[in-house]
Specification:
The protein is of the alpha/beta class and 255 residues long. An 8-stranded mixed beta sheet has the order 2-1-3-4-6-5-8-7, with helices on both faces. Helix 1 packs across helix 6, helix 3 packs across helix 4 and helix 4 crosses helix 5. The two termini are 32 Å apart.
Amino acid sequence: MARDLEKYLRPEVKETPFCPGCGHGILMGLLLRAVDGLGLDMMKVLFVSGIGCAAWIPSPNFKADTLHTLHGRAIPFATGAKAFNPELNVIIVSGDGDLVSIGGNHLIHAARRNTDITVICANNMIYGMTGGQLACTTPIGAMSSTYPDGSPYQAFDLVKLVSAAGARYVARFAVTQPLSLIGALKRAISLKGFTFVEVLSPCPTQFGRRNRYGSPEKMIEMLRDQCVTREEARGMKPEELEGKMVTGVFVDGGC
């Protein structure tokens, strides 16, 4: 972590909890860049997470109030905290397994109700912490510990899911797009209502080694190759978009 961000970190935490090459450490730094850019008072911010690798981004690292909650239940805890103290800036940081697989029902209903919270979903396309099981975001054909021959199921498109449920702001970027991602995080945090940012984050340990990405660098290259912006996608044929991940801002409700 860069020295200028150390003021946002608890001094007693010295070591990263993330595997070598994990993208969650990059996301942690970019989120703090967004917080710093907005000039947020950390005494008025509550970070909420569930269970999983991404849940370790705010807790125990951030020098702010943090709630490390039950698996799949980060959004109900956050909703309750926001209802109790509407002045709090409530930011949820958790993974795709926690927020969408186990907590999916909470996600869509919070979007439908336009609950005034920001949800940041670190999507590494697999259950990383618990052994590399298939997630609802695992791409069709990708291998996992529970489907070694490849997933037969279509993956959720989180942007479409949350947009259809009525989210006020929806964006998707990869950790390989740092400036765009910081901008999306700042916009999501500053808006009232339910806002959602999906962050594509590499997991070399569980996803990479099972899908023949031989090193963390190969996974970064994969993200760079597969991510195309919405503007680029408009000029591409359907067959050219197969296997690509379209990034950008998909919904911006303004204000």
